Write the structure tokens for this entry.
Amino acid sequence: MSGARLNYAVTVAPLMEIVMRTALAVFLLTLVAVSAVAASVPTIAIVDFTSSDYTDLVTKIPEFLSDELVNSGRFSVVEREKVASFMDELMLSQTGLMDMNKTVQLGKLTGASYVLTGNLIDFGAETRDYQIGNYRGRTTFFRLRVAVKILDVETGKILFSTRHLSEKKQHEGQNVYISDSRVPIALAEQSAAEIVQKILSSEAFNTERTPTGKIRITVTSKPSGADVEINGVFYGNAGAAFEVPEGLNEIKVSLPGYEVWTKKVQCREGLEFTAHLTEAFDTKIKVSSDGG
């Protein structure tokens, strides 16, 4: 009996080891796949909206926009707590983001390619009473109007801008009352979903559009005159216009004495941007020839 138990233990141990190794391999492959997907989509930072009136919609709409953009699979969104932390660090208020330079600075600190800002223009309701025969009723029309802009952190240019109106209506009849306490939140959700559809279908972010062929872009560098490689091919020196395939291209800008600047860029006709190079530090360790 003791021999049988020993054989059983010896058999089970390798089997459990194989199962554990297989599970670990699957987990690691999943992490790699998730990381690859995250690296292939642009990152966007979303800040709270501005408004002339105090309302929690200035935070609710950005929250819903964040959810919609993440669920689209086309963007990676910076955590809102992280955005708020950097805004505190820069001593920025929402009104301070009207300065595009500060918005660009916020985007660079968060590591985002784009920054989405917005303004709640109007939220209100209009009630209309009506009567059909002996039946009396009331319809309330709720409206939410917002303005949204998306800034390209690298170029400092506005890639997307829209003013959007969302509406909902509720009906009340005799002896029937419908609470409207959920309407503002429901309208904010609706508005966010509609705005994200506009963003995804816009020319700047519609990655599903079939490329039309070659386009011209202009790449400059600071310092000037750096080498420009596109998809592994040397194209020339920064400061010139280059003809490249429309769509996503990997662009590398390099200059001796400076860190290499590499990014995947969604290229469209007429795109212009500047690669800001960082001076490389000499990490060589000097060894003294002094015997002491």
